[in-house]
Fold:
Amino acid sequence: MKFCSPLLLPWVLFVPGSVQAADKAMEAYTAGDYARAYKLWRPLADKGEREAQFIIGSMYEHGQGVAVDLAKASDWYRKAASRGHEVA
Structure:
């Protein structure tokens, strides 16, 4: 049986928050809690995650959790597209 190095243990026990935050954001979004979904997706979008960027763009386009702002929507769509998001 192999044992985990004590130096690696924190990384094994702690999963980076991006996946968890995205899951929680999707739960909030599907429940109609757009403001909470935006707050969870925005940091991911700021870090350059293209799916979050696309979703933030959509939220600005449709006024979900934020005021409609087509200029901001366009900016977020462009960011997502520049990272390879096919729909953006």
User: Anything to note?
Assistant: DSSP finds five helices and no strands in the chain. Helices lie at 9-13, 17-30, 34-46, 50-62, 70-82. Residues 1-15 have pLDDT under 50 and may be disordered.
